[in-house]
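Q: What changes when flavin-adenine dinucleotide is included in the input?
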Amino acid sequence: MKEYDVVVIGAGFGGPVAAKKCAEAGFRTLMLERSARVGEKVISGLTIPFYGFLFGPAFIRDGNPPIERPVDGIINYIIKDIEAGDIEIDDSLRIPRPLSPILAFGYNAYCRPFCQWEAEKAVESGVELRTSTTVVELLKEDGRVVGVKTDKGEEIRARLVIDGEGSQGLLAVGAGIREKYPPEVISLADVYDYEMAKEDVDEVFGYTLRFCWGWDEQRIAPPLGHGNGLMVWPYRESVHFCQDQCLAMDDGKVPNLRKLFEEYHRNLTSGLPWWREEIAPRARLRARVFENFEIFVGLNERLRAMPNHADGIILIGDAAGLESTELCDGVPAAWFSADIAADVAIEALRAGDVSASFLSRYDQRVRAHPIIQWSITAPHRYNLRFAQEHHSLEELRRYVHDGWGLGGFAFMSSALVKMILQAIREDPMIITSWLRMFPRYYYNWLYERYDYSGGRGEPARDHSREPRVAQAVLRAGFKLMDSALALGAPLVKAAAGLLEPVARFANPAMKVLLPGIEALMRGWKKVEPALAPLSDRMIDFVGRADPAVFAAPRKGGG
Ligand SMILES: Cc1cc2nc3c(=O)[nH]c(=O)nc-3n(C[C@H](O)[C@H](O)[C@H](O)COP(=O)(O)OP(=O)(O)OC[C@H]3O[C@@H](n4cnc5c(N)ncnc54)[C@H](O)[C@@H]3O)c2cc1C
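A: The predicted holo structure follows.
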């Protein structure tokens, strides 16, 4: 029987992060993935918010992950009466020009290249990866997890198992660690994948996402009564139309989702002028996929309290119930929890104690993580059901604006500020890593091409007209900041520490400041056309720069 220090189940978004860190710490680490090619069984990666990259694993932040498109905001369509064309638009969460699109609020990615890229980095760090291998059972001795059994009948022993199997959680349920979720908290997502020429995607979307919200009786989107919505995501040369709905209603009724999804899709694509006139003539349907994900687990205290570890095992990401109730953005939580799990695994292995009581520090750290906690417990998406029930346009506007608009900052600023200050306290140099990350990611979007049958294509770069003086100035500026931060590290750390209590007041402060900020944003929109040349110059500069200008200032990239 083979024996490893750590066996990681699943090479989705979270698994490779945990595996890489354990291997780097010198532990014999095996990662098992059921699909033949990493990432091909993951449906998602639609939008990964900026905080996933800022506070997530260092190798992702400092590297060149495969990104399909930066996102500068969401345009919400509140559809009051589709027949009459009575549609209200809220685009209060758009990063203004000239900062957009280089300063993005998120990035759209495709699962397969992204997960492949992460898994490659793990393998480079010494992880042994086996694909086409399904774990069918957790091996237990005296109630303690001691390894896994695969579909090939092989039994593999591990001092510790990290379970990143994703939302089904079948292994954790089978081993009695967690219970199956009730159907009211599981959503079925129906994703239509359209091919569209890059110029068309650029023209129609720019860098925005489009979300639609409406009333039940219009049958244009899954009933908001269950917190569902309809989202349209642009990629480099394709568009995803995604609708999702819980498997059962509050009263226990089970809707015929396949039939309903078809009806919503037909009504919306034929009724919404934006889709009918701008998308439909240019898009070609290439595939349709369904996937389940747990969505309201975090709001249910009993489900939230279900164990995320046991003797010999730690659960991460979706398997630990960390899918985001607020925005469905489960990738950041998968990364954060995988990072924490690896730290705890390393401590446990070094201490020779993998008991549940030792591993409980994982649970404590997940609970202390401000962004994970905000993302699993914030209720805006869920609250949409009340707007629907009350048929209140005012509530609908408010929840959309507070969940998918500027208003969100009145609820998430405290978590963000806390994370920023914590990260700076740990390492002040992170500030220049953050500053370099945004233009580097934008540069990648301009040049990288991905080969969906395998790895990534070679970027086509043209530095023939590089703006040498501007680059030299920027390079010198970054170096100066690096030196200043290195010299002033103790001072910067102390200042961040002193400011930490202030984080608590960020949400109330935003509530007070928001009307002013929103007025400013409205004014800014009026001057945006005048700023377009500046924005173009910035884009041109990033596009012609030597990528070394934006490279991570220290090891950790890839
Ligand atoms: C339709 C949809 C839209 C979403 N949109 C977003 C979004 O916009 N932004 C965002 O951040 N998040 C989004 N999410 C959520 C996000 O995809 C998940 O939270 C994230 O993928 C969780 O990562 P994970 O590593 O826990 O699991 P996954 O990424 O699901 O990885 C699990 C891996 O384990 C493998 N596996 C499963 N069982 C076994 C087994 N028995 N043996 C071996 N391997 C196994 C799977 O093949 C898979 O590779 C969305 C999810 C869905 C379904």
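Observations recorded in class: The mean pLDDT is 90.
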